[in-house]
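Hi again,

Forgot to attach this to my earlier email, sorry! This is the prediction with shikimate-3-phosphate bound. I've pasted everything inline since the attachment limit keeps bouncing my files.
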Amino acid sequence: MDNFISKENITSLSGEIIIPPDKSMSHRAIIFGALTKGKVKISNLSLGQDCLNTLKIFEQLGVKVEFLSKRDLILDSSNGFKTGDFTFDCGNSGTTTRLLAGLFSWQNFNSKLIGDKSLSKRPMKRIIEPLSLMGAEIKSNENKLPLEIKGKDLSGIEYFSKIASAQVKSAILLAGLGAKNKTRTYEPTLSRNHSEIMLEYLGAKITSGKDEKGYFAQIEKSNLTPKDIEIVGDISSAAFFMVMGAIVPNSSILIKNVGINPTRDGIIEVFKQSEIDFEILNEKYVSNELCADIKVNYTPNIKPFEIKGDIIPRLIDEIPILAVLATQAQGQSTVSNAQDLRNKESDRIKTIVDALLSLDVDIKEKEDGFIINGKKEFDKEVELETHLDHRLAMSYFVMSLINKKPMKIKGFDCINTSFPEFLDLAKQIGYGE
Ligand code: S3P
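Structure tokens for the complex follow:
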């Protein structure tokens, strides 16, 4: 289904859902698992297209993949990687591209990384620059895809990234894993630390922390030990259901098994600021990642929120859906310091502002975010473009739940990038009954 026409008269959504596995952790489980030169069981792997693209690339390299059930598999890298010249299709996935550029910079093969229209527009200088300083040989199309990488011997560096980006940090750590000497990378605020957690779990020589120069992660050349990895649910996917629960009248949704790693839990802080009626239950650690169940109830008096500074990397992917939340808050909400949103699968500041303007929301675009005045009733028939951006498509869907008129979402298929189960879960809590 390429276009999606929303259903009218949604009265309430209730029940429980299990949120599908985290995309960031799934990429890392495949990549680090494939480096163990052994057999690794990965339980609960994301079936989103982005992660399947990463998996396919390692299959091209000779890693054996045996599915035991829908989301559980054995990754067998006992024979190492093949050599030769490869072209790898990263599809829509920035994480695949940037992390693998770091790894492939020191392998015994040459690779060309290509991607779809959205990925081909995204900036790669952020990884080409540090990797080149380590000795990598990467040709690009003016710092965009395709990337042509020749495997080289790398040396460790100390690097200061201007942006807080887990993709940049992880690309450097993956390069550092094969480089001589130590590699230390700094970032201005802490971005998601799944690479650090999983690399440590698999026995890499890695440390991380904060000193007078900023947040750092440091790695030395290491061998990884094969170990089973279980992946928890994706808070960035849960975010859509959290907002549905809060804004659709009379709803109550229990969202189970959500990863709430403190570098990803910014939305929980926003929910507190907005005085949403919610609870966190059953906290536990799975493969060293914190997870919990989150119950969200309809909240008629949502307070506006302000997000800026250090919290931004902790909720970077949730900003489009938080914009939808802001339309239902009583008062003015603002988002600042989020300029890197313009470099995501679409220019997410522009796409969400345009979509909300078409619904007559009082929203003002800023270079680094936006200002929204709630509380807005949606009562207009509109057609919205997703621009190959899965998170926009799902944010539009949530907008449609409170729109009195039908909405057409063009290119809705792109939700498969991260969350192919999305509509089934929405039906499970009463959508379209
Ligand atoms: C990701 C890091 C973030 C995030 C992306 C996934 C990751 O990107 O937006 O969806 O898995 O490392 P940046 O590191 O570019 O901020």
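The first strand starts at residue 4 and ends at 5. Residues 24, 27, 95, 165-167, 170, 191-192, 316-317, 340 surround shikimate-3-phosphate (CB under 6 Å).

That should be everything now.

G.
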